[in-house]
Amino acid sequence: MSAAVVLNGILLGGLYGMSAMGLSLVFGVLRLVNMAHGAMLVLGAYLAVLITAGTPLPLPVAGACAVLLAGGLGYVLQRHLLTAMLVRGANGPLVATFGLSLIASGLVALRFGSDPVSIPTALGTAGWSLWGLDVRAAYAVSFALAGVVAVALHLTLSRTRLGAAVRAAAADPRTADLIGIDVRTLYALVFAVASALAALAGLLVGVAFSVSPQSGTSYLLIAMAVVVLGGIGNVLGTFAGAILLGVVQTLAAAQFGGGYRDLVVYILFFVVLAVLPRGLFGRRLT
Amino acid sequence: MTIPLRTPDGRWRLWPGLALIAALAAGAAAASGALGRYELNVLTTMLCYLVLAQAWNILAGYGGLISLGVSAFAGGGAYCVALLASHTGAGLPLTLGAAPLLGALAALALSVPLLRLRGDYFTIGTLAAALALQAWVYNWDFAGGSVGLSVPIARSPDLAQTYLLACGAATLAVGAAYWTAYSTFGMRLRAVRDNEEAAAGLGVPTVRYRLAAFVLCGALSGLAGGLIAYQQIAFEPGGMLGPGWSINALLMCVVGGVGTVAGPVVGTLVVYYLLTTLLAGYDAVSLVVEGLLLVLIVRFAPQGIWPLATRYAGTLLVRMRRTA
Predict the structure, then answer these.
(1) Where does the record place it (chain A) (predicted)?
(2) Domain tally for chain B?
(3) Domain ranges within chain A, ordered by starting residue
């Protein structure tokens, strides 16, 4: 029984890793705390619902459309709104992204009401037996997807020219600009990728659980706790931190009851900040 | 004989401004007899918002630390008042004294994980604290759980008394912001905000100044929360510990002008009018409007409307003198 709980926790950690990777990337490269990350996640799920309801597209295609739309929205927001604020100081973008998150949750509430919505698929309710233990199919799929994305992101950042440019812009944007890296476009690209990842995580959340206009904040906090655990800008560390959080949360929920699920996240967040302010795995951009 | 309004080195003295604030407060308090129930209620709510906004302003405007945990302090103060009043039978002075004390202690406790790190962590950490308190209270049957609490009506002040108390609290908050703006404490706090290394190099104990601002903000927010508890009488964790207080305090300061004394006052008037009279009952629309307002102000008028208005008035005055 308890082995199944731990396994489900590990797999849930994959979902959390997916939720946190974009936040970690933006925090690490742009030095921007994106308060709209949770809202983007929720928006991704609602966009998929909207597209499947309005068009005859099958869910995977609709989901891909939602992810692409979120990425495009992220690109435009960063290119035309946030970069100009970043130049002027750190608190402006923080307040602006908070404003964006309010707009997003308000718009979603206007269109869908404030009740939770889930994306109906067979995957959401299916369960599999892995090594004789019962696991939720949605968790397993999320875990596999998140693993693939984390490795791909890690390899892109560490092995490609684009990744080298991103790391240069993260380390010193002015010098990177001087040696011919288009930092503004790069920032927009990073934010677009982060938004797309958030939307993908939102899709998975919508399939595995449900989303409501207010659930953005709770996923923002989960992602933030994961980032703090894993070390900022450290993609593989983020993934490891997410798995740890998933396990701790699942165990706590099994032990004390579901009402304490979120409380565990917040308490863990404070404990890590107080004891290990650099995270479990240290800060580095892969 | 001229009244010495400035110090010998040319800075404004503190007392004329404080006297002006006290005079305004006395005027507002004297008007309580002439006001009806509706006006008293609206004004009390507004004054409580003003206290929260000024507390937020001291921390963010002068200390450079953006808090999204206003509800942890305000809600904490409210729950403190309600629990004390209903379980110990404590009277008004004791409960209203305990609320700011609780806020200050909460700030002190939160500063351990949050204040040693970058400002970003502070923002997220205060949000986490607010959500943690809400999640905890939902599960805490002694504090009413999800149903909430109520203050015993027999021991609560009536509307006019609550209004007078709110006047007092607002005076305290505006006075504290004014003092922060023009005292040595505030000057050092701003130095820490603008350049921590330089301030530390000049001998300012940076962490202690940030901590002082945070504790002051926590105490004022707790006091406001206590007053809100007496005004609302019954409340539940969804509203009292929800993100609304943080959103409003931030919005009022950002709209009016962060880091000015008059800005949050103007912001409170504008935002409160906008949100309560124009958008009452449209929760989703008001969220969108609040968000849009934040983004637009930060993008096009990052200093807020009060500094913008004073600067515009200043240029106008200069031009009129030239043409005259």
Answers:
(1) Cell membrane
(2) 1
(3) 2-275
